[in-house]
């Protein structure tokens, strides 16, 4: 018999809450039997949305949370003060072992701070990174850390590499994922102080397939499976991915509409092009897990649709079934970093 | 009467040397009267190329240099040992006042090291940055530093901002260019230690139009005219621009060829699309100057065509005519940083 995976879902987080979030939860429990969802948020609003759907009643439970943390609020303050917010209440369910995972499309800062303060780190993990799947020409790569820890140190980056490698192998299914560190050149003497300190440490790791440095140019071309970066650099990469993608696509649309001839062509090209560009859209790949916590915390896009919510719930199922946290615990229990 | 601008051109640098370099020099002197070019490189090879063209003989001079620095060589060692290389000989012409500018498509590392060791810094300039024009949806932005100084300090970044602002205003012609620092968020409390230290210093600068932080997402959308970054981050941005652009374009081409219908459309769309994408191609915007040297040093793309060489020579003319170096000297003479 399959074990049930219990997911706490922030029903108030993101631009499309609670509508799309509730819809995604319903779609998930209707599609798979071993899922139980706790919808955390303002009871009345959530129940109002839920009443629109048919689903197995015992597999969705509403947990009331009277407050909402907005993206404008300073994260640390918000987590400390709003004890009855959907983020704090949802993360407490994970902390207390009542849920296996927490998903939110709300304030990234608050989710990250709550992950550390409410859920807590696995023993031995110094800094839990955010791990985001980014599209490449031939699949996806995991960018870790994509923004949780700016000013991270070399020992943190080594942990990012190890946890990212486990995630990529067991959740995404890439055997012996190629792990590379973001650098300004591929020669071993290249780099800033942090990369020069981290490089030999990664080279020594026997439990990962470290392939050396990767220049940012090679990331979209699939040059590595796990892209290790300090949080500032990782965040720049993630956001430039989004910005450059949308800028280029708007340029291309403009170009297609520039002449009568090209307008005719655009009509013919459109369906195929749409399908292709979808594979290069970061929002297609579910949420970004925060690795190394006592439980799973996943950040989804602020504008997540019901489909993304559903896929992120399925991602939590794989995470649990593949015993990712047990593997991370074993890693740091065997070889303590400190 | 117009003053003649004397440009030393590395005839041996880049993938297309000496052919395209020599051709670009000829095109430049044939197009404008106030240009004199020194073609620096192996005399026989350069003269062989030159013999193919017609041009005013007194405006192109060949300067022999028996050695070539390759991109594989360690830059500092190469500059010290290869005294008769085209890079060292060309930069010495600038150092000795025989040329106003040096252009090379060769080893970036060697050009940067030579800029510091051979040409030398303007008094008061701590770290000369590389300033690269990158395309945006509505024009160009100047990325400074795009890779010369990793591990730069806050005072360096302030100088990058000031020199970049002068360049953007007087060479590109954007009045009061908006200067922004690359950051992980726009709120003032956001950032890594370096950005947090630099931000208030930039805010105090009266001689630039500092508009605050910019997230990488907004760079391609034209969120600022001068993008200030430490060299590691700047290099990641520049290379991701290149890599993501080429990856997306190859995806789009693939998409257009995926069905019969879309293939027909592609034929109609192609000319307009090609024109549009050209405006988003970083190689269209000439070379990247190293700012703050006693003379001008410009790095062009390794695969520079004669057209890019010609445009870069014109860029040197504007740089001289707009007295950029005099403006930089005045800036640091008035308000010494140290």
TrEMBL record, chains A, B:
<comment type="pathway">
    <text>Lipid metabolism; phospholipid metabolism.</text>
</comment>
<keyword id="KW-0444">Lipid biosynthesis</keyword>
<protein>
    <recommendedName>
        <fullName>Phosphate acyltransferase</fullName>
        <ecNumber>2.3.1.274</ecNumber>
    </recommendedName>
</protein>
<dbReference type="GO" id="GO:0006633">
    <property type="term" value="P:fatty acid biosynthetic process"/>
</dbReference>
<keyword id="KW-0963">Cytoplasm</keyword>
<dbReference type="Pfam" id="PF02504">
    <property type="entry name" value="FA_synthesis"/>
</dbReference>
<dbReference type="GO" id="GO:0043811">
    <property type="term" value="F:phosphate:acyl-[acyl carrier protein] acyltransferase activity"/>
</dbReference>
<dbReference type="InterPro" id="IPR003664">
    <property type="entry name" value="FA_synthesis"/>
</dbReference>
<comment type="function">
    <text>Catalyzes the reversible formation of acyl-phosphate (acyl-PO(4)) from acyl-[acyl-carrier-protein] (acyl-ACP). This enzyme utilizes acyl-ACP as fatty acyl donor, but not acyl-CoA.</text>
</comment>
<dbReference type="InterPro" id="IPR012281">
    <property type="entry name" value="Phospholipid_synth_PlsX-like"/>
</dbReference>
<keyword id="KW-0594">Phospholipid biosynthesis</keyword>
<dbReference type="GO" id="GO:0005737">
    <property type="term" value="C:cytoplasm"/>
</dbReference>
<keyword id="KW-1208">Phospholipid metabolism</keyword>
<comment type="similarity">
    <text>Belongs to the PlsX family.</text>
</comment>
<keyword id="KW-0808">Transferase</keyword>
<dbReference type="GO" id="GO:0008654">
    <property type="term" value="P:phospholipid biosynthetic process"/>
</dbReference>
<keyword id="KW-0012">Acyltransferase</keyword>
<keyword id="KW-0443">Lipid metabolism</keyword>
<comment type="subunit">
    <text>Homodimer. Probably interacts with PlsY.</text>
</comment>
